[in-house]
């Protein structure tokens, strides 16, 4: 105890140095080390910037711009500087230090990128808006060298200005790669001077099924963020054409803008699949001269023809002058190979190259493209399907198929550099719920099973596919704040990451997103389950998120700002559907939430429970179906007794679980329950379904209520999954906290 007493004053000093009201403790991603100093730096006298190296002049210009945006006078002035920028070879290449004293500010980096990262931290300190900066010293460096984000501009086009605005947000959070998905079946978005039809025709389309889904949603939900942007529509001979593209000058401007912010832009031209936009312009690129769809995917390029290979090389050659990046992404995923099986040109190529069928033909194409890129000083990058193509270790792989972890380990074992981009965690285009932020934040890129190959792991990347994301407001709601969680995972050491502290830091950053004109997902409205019951009447007490106005209806219609605004608790006495929607300060609508209400009598406890023990009886079935009701029709694999609702150790592969027993209710009341599962789950109490979370889906929470008398009630939870899912279930308390079932509550 003497040792602890001796250390206590030191601990108190450290706590004071990192007190929660310091702007330094608000930084995202959280820095490696922050030491508090004495006093503050007064911003009222302005900032005079001196870059110590000519290489840092772009960074100095960028920093001056950031300061002026925060109403701080700033200019480059080497003779009377109070802010210096320096390169320090002793620091990690992407690392930095930021030192603030009452007299001056020093930014040092192991590279220009490191200095820009220091500027990002300084920028966040300025957001406190106090007119001064606290004296401190930050010593920081990233966990991963590749901290990326991909934007799909092919499915829906985003303007140059929107891309640059998003790039600025990425720079705030120390991302250093912007991957642009420039081509796909739905559009070709980059000017290629040798093939002008690619943008004259391929960049524009008659509204398709993706567009119809967006327009239907805009109408059904009264939500303009799902409308096709008028700026991306033109009318030709009375017909609507939707799309857009970047000129080569646009690309140069985007690349330069990103480079000043420490971000490298990676182009993706999807080859040889996902190519309908190109085939529609130049039909000779397809085996039969037609664009269309095969059994699984769209018509691919005819890579048996030399003219098609020349087309690919010519397109890639024009990219080399536009993108300084070492990497060129060629896609390589989801290729429909069946046309090659009957194409004379492809069969001729297969024979000439001594290949074994259409699968090896794609591998041949990928290897040839790898060689072409290498000859021009570029590195091939592709989705993880390219690991099957016999590439050299010089190529890099982007792992996305989270249900196939073997492709990740295979790529690492083969010596490839790998960027992790698992769809389960880092595809940010999916619909959101209250758990998606914690799910993204909690993902660990480097588990123990991968430590042996960690040198091959370049980093991580989040992706935004835009099939149903037509506007920046729709994108913002999906991206933020999850993209900030990705930033912290990519930058900060595992021991520095703490979700509760991340949530504490978020409000400042959400205000800055609003200020920059970016939408973000509001927190869930608390106070109701998906399915609610009441005895006599229900008093509805809702907890809307801060900075939002909440509107509701009781007749199932979609609320808008003309609907009833929630200002105080209200009563429900009849069965109804409560429909909720929040609006942010800019008047942008959040997602719709529906909650059913119905009257219910108390369920009496079971009379024949007998002598009970803690835990549940669990049966595991070899089940590969798509609903909970049919689980027990599959072969029984094993029986278990578990203390709580869990997937028992040793249960793998096709999983169907039935967890039976009783739940011990301590007092009469209405109880709220939830399940959180991937895939489906249902919870029944006294034979009545209380939570219906059934069906094939990714991680999803559903909740419901039951009116229960004191005593034990029969309990049955069903769950299935075919791909290594998760299962959690429990009670929701009066504060909205999710509390997993304990062994004391569950009996058998």
From TrEMBL:
Annotated catalysed reactions: Hydrolysis of terminal non-reducing N-acetyl-D-hexosamine residues in N-acetyl-beta-D-hexosaminides
MF (Gene Ontology): beta-N-acetylhexosaminidase activity
Active site per database record: 334
One GO CC term on file: membrane
Keywords: Glycosidase, Hydrolase
EC category name: hydrolase
Name of the featured protein: beta-N-acetylhexosaminidase
Native species: Alistipes finegoldii
């Amino acid at each position: 105890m003497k040792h602890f007493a001796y250390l206590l004053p030191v601990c108190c000093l450290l706590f004071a140095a990192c007190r929660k009201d310091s702007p330094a403790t608000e930084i995202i991603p959280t820095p490696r080390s922050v030491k508090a100093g004495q006093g503050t730096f007064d911003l009222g006298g302005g900032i005079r910037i001196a870059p110590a190296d000519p290489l840092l002049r772009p960074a100095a210009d960028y920093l001056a711009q950031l300061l002026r945006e925060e109403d701080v006078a700033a200019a480059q002035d080497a003779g009377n500087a109070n802010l210096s920028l320096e390169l320090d070879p002793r620091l990690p290449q992407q690392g930095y230090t930021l030192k603030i004293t009452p007299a001056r500010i020093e930014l040092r980096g192991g590279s220009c990128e490191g200095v820009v990262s220091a500027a990002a931290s300084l920028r966040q300190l300025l957001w406190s808006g106090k007119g001064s900066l606290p004296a401190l010293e930050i010593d920081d460096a990233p966990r991963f060298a590749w901290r990326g984000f991909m934007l799909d501009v092919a499915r829906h086009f985003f303007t140059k200005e929107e891309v640059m605005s998003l790039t600025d947000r990425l720079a705030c959070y120390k991302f250093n790669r912007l991957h642009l998905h420039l081509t796909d079946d739905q559009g070709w978005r980059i000017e290629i001077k040798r093939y002008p039809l690619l943008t004259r025709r391929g960049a524009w389309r008659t509204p398709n099924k993706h567009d119809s889904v967006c327009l239907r949603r805009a109408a059904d939900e009264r939500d303009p963020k799902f409308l096709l942007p008028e700026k991306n529509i033109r009318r030709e001979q009375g017909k609507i054409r939707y799309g857009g593209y970047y000129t080569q000058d646009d690309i140069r401007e985007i690349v330069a803008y990103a480079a000043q912010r420490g971000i490298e832009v990676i182009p993706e031209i999807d080859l040889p699949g996902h190519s309908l936009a190109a085939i529609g312009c130049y039909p000779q690129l397809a085996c039969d001269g037609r664009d269309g769809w095969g059994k699984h995917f769209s018509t691919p390029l005819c890579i048996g023809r030399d003219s098609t290979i020349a087309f690919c090389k010519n397109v890639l050659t024009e990219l080399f002058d536009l993108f300084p990046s070492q990497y060129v992404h060629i896609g390589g995923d989801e290729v429909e190979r069946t046309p090659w099986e009957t194409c004379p040109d492809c069969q001729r190529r297969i024979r000439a190259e001594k290949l074994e069928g259409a699968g090896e033909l794609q591998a041949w194409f990928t290897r040839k493209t790898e060689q072409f890129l290498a000859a021009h000083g570029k590195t091939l990058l592709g989705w993880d399907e390219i690991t099957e193509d016999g590439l050299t270790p010089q190529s890099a792989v982007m792992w996305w198929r989270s249900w196939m972890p073997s492709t990740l380990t295979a790529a690492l074992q083969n010596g490839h550099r790998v960027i992790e981009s698992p769809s389960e965690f880092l595809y940010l285009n999916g619909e959101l719920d209250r758990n998606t932020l914690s799910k993204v934040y909690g993902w660990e890129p480097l588990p123990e099973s991968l430590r042996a190959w960690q040198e091959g792991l370049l980093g991580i990347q989040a992706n935004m596919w835009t099939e149903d994301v037509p506007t920046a407001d729709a994108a913002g709601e999906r991206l933020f704040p999850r993209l900030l969680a990705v930033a912290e995972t990519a930058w900060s050491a595992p021991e520095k990451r703490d979700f509760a502290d991340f949530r504490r830091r978020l409000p400042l950053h959400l205000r800055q997103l609003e200020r920059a004109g970016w939408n973000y997902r509001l927190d869930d409205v608390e106070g109701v389950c998906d399915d609610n019951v009441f005895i006599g009447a229900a008093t509805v007490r809702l907890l809307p998120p801060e900075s939002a106005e909440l509107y509701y209806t009781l007749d199932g219609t979609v609320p808008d700002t003309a609907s009833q605004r929630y200002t105080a608790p209200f009563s429900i006495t009849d069965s109804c559907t409560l429909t909720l929607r929040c609006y942010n300060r800019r008047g942008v609508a959040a997602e719709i939430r529906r909650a059913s209400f119905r009257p219910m009598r108390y369920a009496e406890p079971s009379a024949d429970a007998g002598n009970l023990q803690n835990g549940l009886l669990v049966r595991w079935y070899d089940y590969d179906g798509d609903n909970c009701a049919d689980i027990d029709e599959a072969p029984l694999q094993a029986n278990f007794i578990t203390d709580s609702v869990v997937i028992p150790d040793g249960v793998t592969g096709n999983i169907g679980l039935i967890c039976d027993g009783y739940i011990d209710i301590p007092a009469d009341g209405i109880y709220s329950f939830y399940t959180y599962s991937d895939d489906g789950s249902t919870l029944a109490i006294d034979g009545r379904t209380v939570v219906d979370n059934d069906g094939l889906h990714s991680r999803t929470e559903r909740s419901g209520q039951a009116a229960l008398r004191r005593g034990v009630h029969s309990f049955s939870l069903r769950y299935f999954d075919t791909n290594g899912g998760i299962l959690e279930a429990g009670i929701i308390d009066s504060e909205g906290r999710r509390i997993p079932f304990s062994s004391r509550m569950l009996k058998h």
